[in-house]
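Progress narrative, work stream C.
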Amino acid sequence: GQLGCDLVALDYPSPLREGRALVSATLSRRLNKNLRASLRYGYYTYADDSAGGQRDYDAHVVYTSLQYRF
């Protein structure tokens, strides 16, 4: 099968919401003519100085998908 990998890095600075960032990576593989599987990882972070750090967070997200085409 074919193996594909995609890496995307984005930063969203804003005067109202400083410190927001996202990094994600996707690995996908075609298993056969009709079936594709993928694995995705994302890291999200947010820091809000106006709230004294009470709304700050770091998040790790992992998910998979399986796609079947008729």
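Work stream C, second folded protein:
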Amino acid sequence: QWVVPLGVTVPASIPTAKVAGQVVFLSRWHPKKRIPLLLEALSRLKDLPWHLVLGGDGDDVMRTEIHAAIQ
């Protein structure tokens, strides 16, 4: 069995989120990442406070779809 490193050094302790319910998505925006599904799931959490940070980029179609879903 092989372990492929992430290409980064992971610190011994990882800081916790500054905001309760913070969700961070940092990746290429591609249909297989299913960002619209994430947005739909978060939209159903009406009784819980959350904050979403989307980082990354994708093609124009994917960006348009995500921006439309956020509106």
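The CA atoms of residues 16 and 22 lie 10 Å apart. No further action is required on this item.
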